[in-house]
């Protein structure tokens, strides 16, 4: 961002890659969106509530009260009567926008100081491939909470080390968490989406890792 805060992170693990959008904030690295090359993606409102959630089957759009506004299925994967996707455009903030046109046309755009970067995080997963994908691991409520608190504690330790190394408060506000902590926070959010837990607990875990 023009402020110097990290806006977009791209990670790769084996043959999978992810794109993470962070909020433009000084002291936190709140995750605003996560896009994955296996077809799973989630966008969040500024308060951390889920905005858009997509999988290899389709997606849904929620309002800020948690009500489903729109639901669709990708044309090539739906065995049921097709629910078409109307193009969606949202602004995560004044610099980052998301356009969803089709399963293989999901664009993340970053615009600042007259320059633009655009990433296509869409993917074309065929039905035969989708049927072979193993379901995500399921964890219990206690396990998810422990993982979230572990990441939060590591975040605090990292910030303490930074404060000791750079006593000036000017440096504190510019410190970003290490990449491995950002990746761990994202994985916990993925597990929460796959787990059979209440929305209240899911929001609490999201607040812990994004604190």
From TrEMBL:
Residues 1-174 form the FAM194 C-terminal domain. Transmembrane segments: none annotated. Signal peptide: none annotated. InterPro entries: FAM194_C (IPR029281). This is ERIP6 protein. It comes from Erythrocercus mccallii.
